[in-house]
C-alpha cells in the first residue's frame, strides 16, 4: 500500500511539473499607455491597459487595467502618481482558472537627459496588493528606462529610437498567509526594443523582454502604444 502511494505521488509530481511554465516558449504583451494633463495644470491622469499571453494568443497570462492621478510640481522635474490597478491572472497551460488582485500604488517618475540625445527616466513605485486568497502584501519596484534616438537628436516626430529598461521587484513581506511564503526577491525584467515617434502625442515600441522570477524565466515580445493627449 505504501509503495502504491509513493508511485502515485511520483506520477502526480511528474504531471505537475509538465504544467509548469515552458521557459522556451515566447509569450507576448500588448500594451496601451496614456497620460493627460488637465488644462496645462500641475494635475493629470496616467495609466495603462495590458493584455499578456503565455504563448502569443490563446493562453491568457494577465489582464491588467491601471489608472492614476498625477501631480507634477513646477520646476521640480518629478511626477507623482496615486493610482489603482485591477489584475486578473490566468494559469499557464490548459487551465481556465484565474485569480484576482486589486492594487493601490504610489509612484515617482524622474526624467533626466544626458548630453544631447540620451533620455533616462527613473521610476520608483510602492504597491499595496490585495491578492485573492492571500494576506495583504506590499512590493517595491525600481525601473530605469533608457531611450536613445537614432536618426534625430531628440524624440521628435519621425524619430526612430532604441529603448531599454531594467526593473527590479522586491516583496515587502515574505509571509502571504496559511503558512505560505515567498522570497524577498520577486522578479526582474530586462527589455530591449525599437521605438518610433509618430507625432508629438503618439509613439510606438516593439521589443523583447526577459522576465526572471525565483521559479522561472521567460521571454516576452512586447508591442506598445504610448499616447499623450
UniProtKB/TrEMBL annotation:
Domain of life of the native organism: Bacteria
Keyword Signal part of the UniProt annotation: yes
InterPro entries in alphabetical order: DUF2490 (IPR019619)
Keywords: Signal
Endpoints of the signal sequence: 1-19
Identification of the protein by name: DUF2490 domain-containing protein
Lineage of the species this protein comes from: Bacteria, Pseudomonadati, Bacteroidota, Flavobacteriia, Flavobacteriales
Amino acid at each position: 500500500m505504501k509503495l502504491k502511494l509513493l508511485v502515485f505521488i511520483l506520477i502526480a509530481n511528474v504531471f505537475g511539473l509538465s504544467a509548469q511554465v515552458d521557459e522556451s516558449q515566447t509569450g507576448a504583451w500588448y500594451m496601451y499607455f496614456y497620460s493627460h494633463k488637465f488644462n496645462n495644470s500641475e494635475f493629470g491622469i496616467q495609466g495603462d491597459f495590458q493584455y499578456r499571453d503565455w504563448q502569443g494568443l490563446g493562453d491568457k497570462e494577465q489582464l491588467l487595467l491601471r489608472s492614476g492621478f498625477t501631480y507634477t510640481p513646477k520646476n521640480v522635474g518629478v511626477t507623482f502618481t496615486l493610482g489603482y490597478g485591477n489584475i486578473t491572472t490566468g494559469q499557464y497551460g490548459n487551465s481556465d482558472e484565474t485569480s484576482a488582485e486589486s492594487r493601490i500604488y504610489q509612484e515617482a517618475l524622474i526624467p533626466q537627459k544626458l548630453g544631447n540625445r540620451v533620455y533616462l527616466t527613473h521610476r520608483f513605485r510602492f504597491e499595496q496588493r490585495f491578492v485573492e486568497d492571500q494576506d495583504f502584501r506590499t512590493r517595491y519596484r525600481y525601473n530605469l528606462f533608457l531611450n536613445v534616438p537614432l536618426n534625430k537628436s531628440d524624440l521628435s516626430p519621425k524619430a526612430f529610437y532604441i529603448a531599454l529598461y531594467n526593473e527590479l521587484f522586491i516583496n515587502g513581506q515574505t509571509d502571504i498567509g496559511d503558512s505560505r511564503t515567498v522570497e524577498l526577491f520577486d522578479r526582474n525584467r530586462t527589455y530591449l526594443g525599437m521605438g518610433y515617434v509618430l507625432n508629438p502625442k503618439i509613439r510606438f515600441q516593439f521589443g523583447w523582454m526577459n522576465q526572471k522570477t525565483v521559479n522561472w524565466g521567460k521571454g516576452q515580445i512586447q508591442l506598445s502604444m504610448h499616447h499623450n493627449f
